[in-house]
Design brief:
The protein has ten helices and no strands. It has one domain: Ferritin, core subunit, four-helix bundle (Ferritin, Up-down Bundle), CATH 1.20.1260.10. Helix content is about 70%, strand content about 0%. The protein has about 280 residues and is mainly alpha-helical. The longest helix has about 30 residues.
Length: about 280
């Protein structure tokens, strides 16, 4: 089946001549990595089709891949709107690791694990990122409009994933919880590592100290993005119906990825004490 995403009409490049070169670098970084995530999603959904038995599920998953193709084109349009280009040298290597973990789960025929990786973990970061761009506080109408369109699609994918995972939990909770444990320790350090190390990456690879960037008309707070993605992920784990006895130590273990996450965990009501994934506590 050929994937033929349609493109919106009437998007006019703005250019942002008033933006500093540093801000343009930051925008290039964010949009390029968002596009890398969408490219991975196309591969993930396409590969996951074979794990479904029902034709309707196969068709729905191909449609999800088709929507991710549309997102890639939208992000390329967004780059034009804010006056930057897609630059592969800004892409984090963690995307490769995430894709490899997903491929391994497909090889083991673990549908629940695949859904957890793509529809809970990756979507949590994507939704948090598009919510940032969709905010009217950014002061850029076209940017906000495109981001809201992307956000609406990702929220639909999340709802579909939650429904599928809830069904699988009802059928075989032990297997699904095992998939969550495996995916959490393999994938969450990669996802949060990308956000946590953003400024170091930009400084090391592009000589850009992102804390000093004049934000101009677009607000991008990388630390807040990390916290928003964490909050979304934790909320979705409980909403999907996972056992809190499994979820709580997994979430608490995330404090080991970044000490600043401890504060966010306290907001969620989950204690970060005494759990390090390297000790096997969870």
């Amino acid at each position: 089946m050929e994937l033929t995403p349609s493109m919106p009409e009437g998007i006019t490049p703005i250019g942002f001549v008033q933006n500093s070169p540093e801000l343009q670098q930051l925008l290039t970084y964010v949009i390029t990595n968002a596009r890398a995530g969408e490219l991975m999603a196309v591969d993930n959904y396409t590969e996951m089709v074979q794990l479904f038995e029902q034709t309707d599920d196969k068709i729905a998953t191909v449609q999800q891949a088709n929507e991710e193709c549309k997102h890639i084109l939208l992000l390329e349009k967004l780059a034009g709107v804010v006056g930057v280009s897609i630059d592969e040298t800004y892409v984090h290597e963690q995307w490769v690791g995430l894709r490899e973990n997903f491929h391994e789960a497909v090889g083991r025929r673990e549908l629940a694990t695949c859904l957890i990786i793509q529809d809970l973990m990756v979507e949590s970061l994507a939704i948090a990122m598009y919510e940032t761009f969709a905010s009217e506080a950014n002061g850029v109408t076209e940017t906000s409009r495109i981001a809201r369109q992307l956000l609406d699609d990702e929220l639909e994918h999340l709802d579909m994933g939650l429904g599928r995972i809830s069904t699988l939990l009802a059928e075989d909770a032990d297997t699904v919880h095992d998939g969550l444990r495996w995916a959490h320790h393999r994938c969450m350090p990669l996802l949060f590592g990308m956000v946590k190390d953003s400024c170091d990456f930009l400084c090391r690879e592009k000589s850009l100290v992102c804390e000093t960037v004049a934000m101009g008309p677009i607000a991008i707070d990388l630390k807040m993005l990390e916290m928003a993605a964490l909050d979304r992920y934790v909320s979705m784990l409980y909403e999907a119906g996972f056992d809190p006895a499994v979820v709580n130590p997994l979430v608490a273990s995330m404090a080991a990825y970044d000490p600043s996450v401890r504060e966010a965990l306290e907001v969620t009501g989950v204690s970060a004490q005494g759990c390090d994934p390297s000790t096997g506590c969870c």
